[in-house]
Amino acid sequence: MQDLAQHTRVDPNGRIVKYNNFIKRVLTTPKSSDSLKEWNLTLSNALITINGHVLPQENLFYGDNHKYPAGNNNDWTEKLRSLPMYSIIKIPCWAIVTPHMWSSDVGQFTNTLLKIANTLGFKLQRPRIVEIENAHISTYSIHLDRIINELKPSFILCVVA
């Protein structure tokens, strides 16, 4: 996630550098500059500067009707990981259907999910994990019918290949 954030969460100065590099590449690449000339278009080698309206900082709401400021960078992901959810629904019974070969990965995923849910104030019960022998559609269908009729779960997570 941090690798992706490095490219998507660019500060204003970094974004200006990226735009200027893009403009430079377009103007110095023969195919691009020829295409612009063909259409009788020009591209400035610098960005224009305009004064924009600065909006007031947003407040974000979380559980128990508390709020916190989004911050100057509007990056609330840190708080999102540690504060209770705004609204919590109950999932008393749920199931995970997984091919047998992935059962250990599903177990690790489940433990992580339950830990995070607890941190967020979401009381999620341990799921019923149903291991199936293969990943054929008919196998999923048979087990899903059985789970729905016997457990009547609120939610089913299917791990597919």
Automatic annotation (TrEMBL):
InterPro entries hit by this protein: RNaseH-like_sf (IPR012337)
Domain of life: Eukaryota
Gene3D superfamilies the UniProt entry points to: 3.40.50.2300
The protein's name: Piwi-like protein Siwi
Organism of derivation: Aphis craccivora (Cowpea aphid)
